[in-house]
Amino acid sequence: MINIFKNKHLGIPLFLEIFILLGVSLTYGILPEKSRGHFPVSVWYAGGQARAPMLEEVTPEKVKSWKKDLEQIKNLGFNTVRCWIEWTANEPEEGKYDFSALESLVDLADEVGLKVIIQVYIDSAPDWVGLKYPDAKFVASNGLAVESQASPGFCFDHLGVREKILKFFSEAAKVVKDKPAFYGWDLWSEPHIINWAEVYHLGNAEYLQFCYCHSTMSRFREWLKKKYHTLDNLNKAWYRTFQEWDDVEPPRFGTILTYTDYIDWNNFISDKLAEDLTLKAEAVRAVIPESVITSHSAIPGLFSKPRWNGTPDDRLMADSVDYYGVSIYPKHAWTIKPWSTFFRASGHDFARSMSIKNGGFYVGELQAGYGVFGMKLSVPVTGEDLCDWIWTAVAYGAKGINIYAYYPMSSGYESGGYGLVELDGKVTKRAVAAGKVAKLLTENMDFFLDAQPPKAEIAILYNPLSHMVGGQQQYTGERQPIGYNNLSESLQGVYRAFFERNMLVDFLHVIDLIPERLSQYKLLVVPYPVMMSKSHIKRLIEYVKGGGTLVAEARCGWNDERGFSSEVIPGGGLHEVFGCRESYLMPLEKTSTIRIITSHESLPFLKQGDTLDALFFEEGFELINDRSEVLAEFENGKPAIIYSSYGKGKAIIVGSFIGSAYHHFKNAHNAKFLVGLAKWLEIPKKINITTSNKDVFIDTRILEGKAFKVLFGFNRGDKKTEAKFAVSVKGQNYTVRNLESKKEVPLYFQNDKLIMEKVLEPGEIWIVVIKQK
To answer: Which is higher by pLDDT, 204 or 495?
Structure first.
C-alpha cells in the first residue's frame, strides 16, 4: 500500500558509473532464465483475514479455512498467491523463529495447485531489537529519535540490526528451499528509509529527512571518502573546514553558500537503498540461487520527487533484482479522482523503461477494492476496472500482476478497504472478473512471457538531478500546484504528446546515456534540463556529433552536478551544439506565447504564425555561428526556438518549458511541435490506427515474440467506434485469432501492412494474436 509519508530520491551511484564506463553490457529486454514458464497472476493472501503485514496464529481450524480460501482463489482463476512474513511475528524472541504459518500456507498452496511469492517485511520489528540495540533508532534531521511502535523498526545501517535482518531473510529461505510451490520473493515493499510511520510529532513531515543516526552518518562518510578521497577535496566541494572525517555530518538545512552537500546526501540515499536491496537479495540467493527476486516502489518514480524522503531511484533498484516493479492504485483514497488513462500509461511506460534490461517489470500491488484512509474513501473499484488495469499493465510489458488484496484490510486506518472479496468471504463481481483475466493469462502464458514491446526510436531523458536545483530552497514561482513537481510535469507533457498519437517512447535514465542504448534512438528529448552533470552533457554532445537529434527545453545545463552555474548557458559545451547562447531571461507569472516565424523541415505540422504556450521562463538566445537559425520568437521578438546542425546530427533548443505547458494547458501546437519531430525524422508508428469517431481515443499497444505479435486495442472513450488497425509485417503468410474466443479474425493486406477492422464498444478491450503460418 502506498505510504503517505514524504520521501526523497536522487542519485547515480559511483559503482554503477564505473560499471557502465567499463563497457559492461546492459542487455535489452532479456527475460531472466529462472522466470521462464510462469507468469504470476496473484492475490495477496497469507492465511485468514489478517491485513499485511500482520499474521494470524496457526491452529488446525484456521488451516482448514485457509485451504478453503486457497481453493476459492484457484477456482477464480489465479495461479499464484502472494503471502508475507514479517519480523515481529516470525522472530518474536531473538533467534527463535516461527515460520509455521508460512510452511502451512506453502504446503496448502501446493495441494491446490498454486505457486507462492513471499513478501518480506522488516519495517515492523520485534521489541527485543530496540532493547538489544538502543542506538539503532531512526533519527530525524532535527535530531529527534523515532521510538518504534513495531513500525517503523530500526535503521538497517546499524551493523547489529543489519546482521539480524539478513539472518531473518536467510532463515526464511531455508524454510521454503525445498517446497515445490515456492516461486520467488518480493524482498522490499515500497522501499523508503522510514516506512509506515506518520511521525508528524517530530516536526513538519515535508522537511524532515532520515536517517541521522550514528550508523547512517558513518556509512555516509565512507561514501564521501570513495567520492572525494581526501578531506581537503570534500572541504573544497562543500565550502567547509572539517579537521577530521568524524566531524562530517549530512546537511540538515540549506544555506546561501552552496548545496553540494545536499546533492551528495541525496545521491547517497539513492545509492544506499539500491545497495540495501542487493544485500537482501544476496541473503536469499545464498540459500536458493534459482528463485525469482523482486521488489516494488510505492508509485512510479516519474511522479515522485527528492523532497519526499527516501524514495528510491527505480532504475538503480532494478539492478539489484530480477524484476523491479511498482504499486498501482488508480482509485486510492488519496486520489481526488481516478487516475486517467494517460497517467496510468505514463507510469507503466516509466516502470517498463527503468527495467528494460530485466525484460519487464512487476506490478507488485494492484488495487483490488475501494480505497480507505480513515474517513477518506475512494469511488468503488469495479470488475471493468480490474480487467482494464490488468490488461493495460500486461500490454505495457508487465511480467507479473499481484492484486492487493484478497480480503479487505481488517484493521488500521485502511480498515475495510482494498479487498477483492468481502471480509466475510463473499465473492464479488470484480473478483470473478479479475479471475477470468487471470485464467486467460495463465492459458496463454507463453505468449506473454516471451513477448516484448518493440524497441522505441524516441527517448525522453530522465535526469533526477534536475529535481535538485536550489537544494532545499526549491522554489518555482507563485503558482501552485503548477510547478509543484517541475521535472515530472515536463516529462509527462512531452510523453503525453506522443502517447495521444500511439507513438512508442522510452524514458531513458541518464545512467543509460551509453552508445549501446543511444544508438537505437533517432530522437532524444530533454525536458526540464536545468541541472546536468558534466559527464552526461559530454555524452549528449557525442550523441549529436554521431548523428542523433537532440531537442532540449530552457536553461539546458544551467547548473552542474555540484549546483554551480555554467559560465555560458546552454552549459557544458552545449552552446556549441545548439549554436546559440542565452541572452535574455524573463520569469513568467502566467503563460506567454512562442510564435513560429518560418517554414522549416523540422516543423512539418506547424506553419508560420502558429503559437505555442511557454511556461515559467522566457529564455531568449543570440546565435553564435552560421550553422544555427531562428525558428520561433517570443512576443517581444526575442529568439525562442533555435535549430542547429552539429557533426552528423541536429539539435533544437526551446527557450521555455513546452512540455509542462502542454501537461497543464493542452495547446495542440505544443504537441504538434513534438510529434512533428518524429515525422521529420521518419520515425514510423508501430501501429497505425484510424477510427470512424475522431473523438474516441484507442490506446493501442503491441508485444512481439518469435513469429508472433499480440495486439491490444483499448477503447478509452465513452462512444462506440469503428477502428482499423494496420500492423507492419513481412509477407502475407499470417493468421489472426481473438485471444479470448480463439476465433479467427478477418484480415487483408495493403502494401506491407496487415489490416484488421473492429467495432469497439465504449471501454472495450480487444486482444488478438498475429502468428506467422
So the answer is: 495
